[in-house]
Design brief:
The protein is an alpha+beta fold. It has an eight-stranded antiparallel beta sheet. Strands 1-2-3-5-4 form a five-stranded mixed beta sheet, with helices on one face. Strands 6-7-11-9-10 form a five-stranded antiparallel beta sheet. Helix 1 (about 5-15) crosses helix 10 and helix 12 (about 410-420) packs antiparallel against helix 14. The longest helix has 17 residues, at about 330-345. It is globular. The two termini are about 30 Å apart.
Length: about 600
């Protein structure tokens, strides 16, 4: 019998040390090498409801003038529009037209709105087109000795996309970790009436109330064409990743972010372990040339991904096999091996760009703040890809991401610990996907931004290719999700959730009426809106999709009125901890 631990360790080795990759394909596909009869997906190849989103035409402007012309023509003809980005990393259906609009609707891609327009050394700012990627911005600003102080950890986001969904890094310092709070100036093209030739460029400056609507817009206000962001002089950071048990995590969560500027946590609840990120600015003279090349964002051989996702006759406990055989013990063993391998590789950090020799790791901010080398190479016929590339049999997962107020976060953490005590093996699946990433966020002026200082929980977990197949310990994971949203009042990440996260969410934003007022002013005909965005914004009912097995995909919340067990042998019962929420999840009788 082949030793499965050795095989999995070998596979992990290949994942860690692969350096070439096929870049992700364009998420838009059209018929016969034209820009007509198109479909669009996200980078994972599936929206929460697995719908195929279509459009009559896709257009790729390369200048603001072309955007104006496109929006004007569509407005004159009353055609619906949606904005697409180069990599399409949002999980929800923000880019999808309604079924009734697919025969006439347009996709406006920002793929070629990708130019750095100006770097102002004196003003410490950068002006970019909205299709510029975070990687481009970090690289070009760094050449000028400037840095974006806080940013998401993944390079493959466009500036328009990340501000539109409220993407962020981790910090309670300065103006906080959300990129949209560093906008100084912004240009957006919106529909208009005939007196403006059906399109209008609105130029918004910091301090404008309308800018607070556009900072996080979900793409429903128009096409952001240019953004000017506030930068800082380049500085160095000192990083130590310290493994501790999770006994004090509830207490530490509310204070650790005040102690360290770039603090975060990676929590492995089934192992009772937490990685504390001790991360602060240091003097520019401090020796060190560190580099961050996070393992999860490196290219991976397609064969390795297929083996990790599936199984062959001699591999006893890989993911789909573990799911199909209810092999909870195998999942926990795999999780421990995964976290051990990440730990000995310092999670992709190196002291000099090549090797890890020990903590602290010291380097320039722009070399350690984000990564994504699987984006960074020539086409190799998908021999290697980003780990989640849907062209190969890669990773396929759900993401549930939410922020909870610092004043409530201890209670939530303690409730999750109770679930681990109740079923110690249930959350091993989270450890397989590198645990729960916990990042600090701050109150924002954006109308759809964070409402108070909090901690953002980013949870990634297995998703079956079969929408009717319950996951192993699905009940526990969904109880975590429902505790967050229905007991602790969590706010959803606009780009990373299933439908359940958005049920009633808009009522948690105190300035939503101001946002909707700007929306009505900018787009009176609702040409950039869809039924789905109207449901999320509370303008229309129907966010819950009631059908057989709907709770398995997070499309509905079971209740006394909704029986959504997928098949005989499965049933619905109330959550164990928050029993008065009158919600439950579909549970397996196994």
């Amino acid at each position: 019998m082949v030793n499965t631990k050795i095989i999995k360790l070998t596979l992990t080795f290949f994942m860690i040390y692969s350096v070439k990759s096929s870049p992700p394909e364009d998420p838009i596909k059209c018929s016969y090498n034209t820009n007509f009869n198109c479909t669009i997906t996200n980078s994972y190849g599936a929206f929460p409801d697995r719908a195929i989103c279509k459009a009559s035409q896709a257009i790729y402007p390369s200048t603001e003038e072309e955007v104006i012309s496109i929006v004007a023509n569509a407005t004159r003809e009353k055609r619906k529009m949606k904005i697409a980005t180069r990599f399409s990393h949002s999980i929800p259906k923000l880019v999808c037209l309604d079924n009734d609009d697919q025969d006439r609707g347009l996709l406006i891609s920002t793929k070629y709105l990708n130019k750095i327009l100006r770097i102002d050394q004196e003003d410490m700012s950068i002006t970019v087109e909205s299709g510029v990627t975070l990687k481009q911005l970090i690289s070009e600003a760094g050449k000028a000795g400037l840095v974006l102080p806080y940013a998401p950890y993944w390079w493959g986001l466009t500036i328009g996309g990340l501000i539109g969904t409220g993407a962020h890094g981790s910090s309670l310092w300065g103006m906080g970790s959300s990129v949209h709070d560093y906008i100084m100036r912004l240009r957006i093209v919106t529909p208009a009436d005939a007196s403006y030739n059906y399109a209008k460029v609105r130029i918004l400056e910091n301090g404008s109330s309308e800018l607070n609507a556009v900072r996080v817009s979900l793409g429903v206000l128009g096409v952001v064409s240019q953004v000017t962001l506030k930068l800082e002089r380049v500085f160095k950071r000192s990083i130590t990743l310290s493994e501790r048990d999770d006994s004090n995590l509830g207490e530490d969560a509310s204070t650790f972010g005040r102690q360290h500027e770039f603090a975060d946590f990676t929590w492995y609840p089934s192992q009772h372990k937490v990685i504390y990120r001790i991360d602060d600015r240091v003097s520019a003279s401090t020796p060190g040339n560190a580099l961050n090349d996070f393992f999860g964002f490196r290219s991976t051989p397609s064969l390795v991904l297929a083996i990790l996702r599936t199984t062959v006759y001699f591999l006893g406990s890989l993911e789909e096999y573990q799911e199909s055989t209810n092999d909870a013990g195998g999942k926990c063993s795999s999780a421990k091996l995964t976290t051990f391998t990440l730990k000995i590789g310092a999670y992709g950090l190196t002291n000099n760009g090549f090797t890890f020799t020990g903590y602290p790791v010291v380097g320039l901010h722009n070399r350690v703040q984000a990564s994504g080398t699987c984006l960074d190479s020539l086409e190799d016929a998908t021999i290697t890809t980003c780990p989640w590339d849907h062209r190969v049999k890669g990773l396929f997962f759900h993401q549930t991401t939410f922020s909870i107020s610092l004043s409530k976060v201890k209670g939530f953490i303690e409730d999750v610990k109770k679930l681990v005590v109740l079923e110690p093996r249930a959350l091993c699946v989270l450890d397989l996907y590198n645990g729960i990433l916990m990042r600090y966020v701050t109150t924002s002026n954006a109308y759809l931004g964070k409402q108070e200082d909090g901690l953002d929980f980013d949870i990634t977990y297995y998703r079956s290719k079969d929408p009717m197949s319950p996951r192993l310990f699905e009940d526990i994971i969904e109880e975590v999700e429902q505790l967050a949203y229905f007991k602790y009042g969590a706010l959803p990440h606009w780009g990373k959730n299933r439908n359940i996260a958005f049920i009633g969410a808009i009522n948690k934003y105190k300035n939503v009426d101001k946002f909707l007022k700007v929306k009505q002013s900018y787009d009176q005909l609702g040409l950039f809106s869809s039924e789905w965005t109207n449901q999320v914004l509370g303008l229309k009912d129907g966010l819950t999709i009631v059908k057989e097995g709907c709770a398995l995909e997070g499309l509905c919340v079971c209740s006394e009125d909704i029986h959504c067990a997928p098949k005989k042998g499965y049933f619905c019962r109330p959550g164990r901890i928050y029993k008065d929420a009158r919600v439950c999840t579909c549970l397996s009788s196994r």
